[in-house]
Amino acid sequence: MPIDLSLYPKNWNQIANSIKNSANWTCEWCNKPCRPPGVSQKDTEQWLKDNHPEWLPHLYKIVEDYEQGIIKIAKPQRFTLTTAHLDHNPANCEADNLRALCSVCHLKLDRDDWNRTQKVRRMKLWEKHGQLTLDFGSIGGT
Questions:
Q1: Residue 43 φ/ψ region, left for φ over 0, alpha for ψ in the -120 to 50 degree band, beta for the rest
Q2: Per-residue exposure over 64-75, b if at least 16 CB sit within 10 Å of its own CB, e if not
Q3: Any idea where the domains of the chain sit in the sequence?
Q4: C-alpha 141: how far from its chain's center?
Q5: pTM (2 decimals)?
Q6: Which of 26, 45, 82, 140 is the most buried (most CB within 10 A)?
C-alpha cells in the first residue's frame, strides 16, 4: 500500500534510518535479519547465504503447479526492513511509537487498522451515493 509522504515529517527518511540502525537491521518482532543499505533485492539470496543461511528458506514461497510440479518463488521483499508507527499516525514520530519491522510484520500490524478504516471509508462512500447505513449495535436497545 503506497504511503502519502505529505503526512510524514520532512526528515522522515532520517528518522526511519535511525530506527532501523538502532535495531541493527533486524525486525524487532520476529528477529528476521533484513537487507541493509547496499544490498539489492536481486542480491538478497547471496546476502542470506553469506550472512544468515538459517533464514534462506524464508526467502521462498513454495507453490505446486500442475504442469511444472513444485516451484520455489523468491520473495526478497520479505527481507525489507520498514519503520512502523504503532499508533498508525505518521505525524507521531516519537521513538516509543516507532518500530523497525520486516515487511511481513509491518503488514500484520497494519492489517487490523486497515480493515477498520476500510470499513469506515466504504460506509462514507455508500452514504455519498445516497445509500443508508444501519447501526446494528443500537437495534433493540434504547
A1: alpha
A2: eeeeeeeeeeee
A3: 5-129
A4: 39
A5: 0.76
A6: 82
User: Which has the closest alpha carbon to 99: 80, 82, 77, 111?
Assistant: 82
* The residue to which cell 519503520 is assigned: 83
C-alpha span between 83 and 87 (Å, rounded): 12
| pLDDT tens per residue across span 48-107 | 999 999 999 999 999 998 898 999 999 999 999 999 999 999 999 999 999 999 999 999
Measured distance CA(121)–CA(126) in Å, rounded: 9
Q: Which residue has the cell 520498514?
A: 82
Bridge partners of 98, per DSSP, are 85
